[in-house]
Amino acid sequence: MKKRIEIEIEEYLSLDKLAKEDRELVEMAIKTSTDAYAPYSGFMVGAAVRLSSGRILSGNNRENAAFPSGSCAEDTVISYAGANYPDDPIISIAIAAKSNDVFTSSPVSPCGNCRQIMAEEEDRSGQKIRIILYGREKIEIIEGISGLLPLRFSKDKLMA
Is 74 a catalytic residue? Predict the structure, then answer.
């Protein structure tokens, strides 16, 4: 037996085509990427989340000479949200990345570890997270982590 896995991605060619809430989140991710600490790679990532209350939080990547002790932007902001607003679930996240002060032309998707962190957050809250990936030439939107991590590991796999 073979199974086919398909994902649906909304694609936009400019920020002004996004819904106001999505555009706000992307703009915050772009802004916070400027404060990323990436002296080794020069790859600066910003992430912003919107909580169900409407509150917007942001974070960025933090590199460390003792690689891999750094933190990704997505991990930083999701951990902050969970620690400070545990009863206010994340409903969307925007991610923007730049290298040598130029934003990537195509969207950059989260690393495997951050995808798993998002999956756990969806499981914890019981709702999908809207994922907005920014690139200079296009913006991609995926509804829920299963679009980026279709065969994810979850707590039900821990049961015999």
Answer: yes
